[in-house]
Design a protein that fits this description.
35% of the residues are buried. The protein is built from five helices and 13 strands. The strands form three sheets. Strands 5, 6, 7, 8, 9, 12 and 13 form a seven-stranded mixed sheet that branches. Strands 1-2-3-4 form a four-stranded mixed sheet, covered by helices on one side. By secondary structure, the protein is of the alpha+beta class.
């Protein structure tokens, strides 16, 4: 039996078609994506297959936890690929002031603490995204409050959790990029500090954490 739901990722409508999954697991998977549920007609389909015999789908796995990890990655990649020529996309967590819609983008590579910051601070600030902060030419931010991939203690596989289950605040007003913060995570125990970074150093580090910058017309001017 095939079950489906629609998502709108960065304005890209996608149909998710799931085969081989129980109704209970399907409801759990769909609930992870409630905040980006589809509002426009899907322009493409992502097929999901569950079970040892599922080999022809775009996303395959042995159970709902298995496929949810790969589905999250697939949806994100499809969205940023489709918007590569009109959105400046920072590899960053985004958090918004609920009163003003001002967004801070916490920029950093994988492992820098973006998801940790989003899941912790998002209970007070509006949760915009844990991975991709997408900025329009005028400085407006396109929210992408997708499920978060949380590390589990003593486990190799990450656990995908929807923002509702984490109690993260929803964003209900237009968003605008206001601040950029470059995350510098240390393995040793240190006192957290905030320092201003010069433009030359900041640009180099930001460019490293930008998706499809070479495809964006007037990229450096936009940045």
């Amino acid at each position: 039996m095939t079950q489906g739901f629609d998502v709108e990722a960065l304005g890209v409508g996608l149909r998710i078609e799931v085969a081989g999954m129980s109704r209970a697991d399907f409801r759990r998977l769909r609930a992870q994506w409630r905040r980006v549920s589809g509002a426009s007609a899907p322009s493409a389909t992502i097929s999901v297959g569950v079970g040892a015999d599922a080999t022809d789908a775009d996303v395959v796995g042995l159970d709902v936890d298995d496929v949810s990890v790969t589905l999250r990655q697939t949806i994100n990649l499809r969205a940023i690929e489709r918007r590569r020529q009109d959105l400046l996309m920072l590899h960053a967590a985004g958090l918004a002031d609920p009163a003003t819609g001002d967004v801070i983008a916490l920029i950093g590579p994988s492992g820098a603490g973006k998801t940790t910051a989003a899941s912790s601070l998002g209970t007070v600030l509006g949760y915009v995204s844990d991975e991709t902060v997408a900025v329009h030419a005028g400085g407006g931010v396109h929210p992408f409050p997708k499920p978060l991939a949380l590390k589990q203690r003593d486990a190799v596989r990450k656990r995908i959790v929807g923002p509702d289950d984490l109690g993260l605040e929803e964003v209900r007003r237009p968003l605008r990029l206001s601040r950029l913060a470059l995350l510098d995570r240390r393995d040793e125990c240190v006192t957290p500090t905030v320092a201003t970074v010069g433009l030359e150093e900041a640009l180099g580090r930001i460019i490293e954490q930008t998706s499809y910058l070479g495809s964006l017309p007037g990229a450096l001017q936009r940045l």
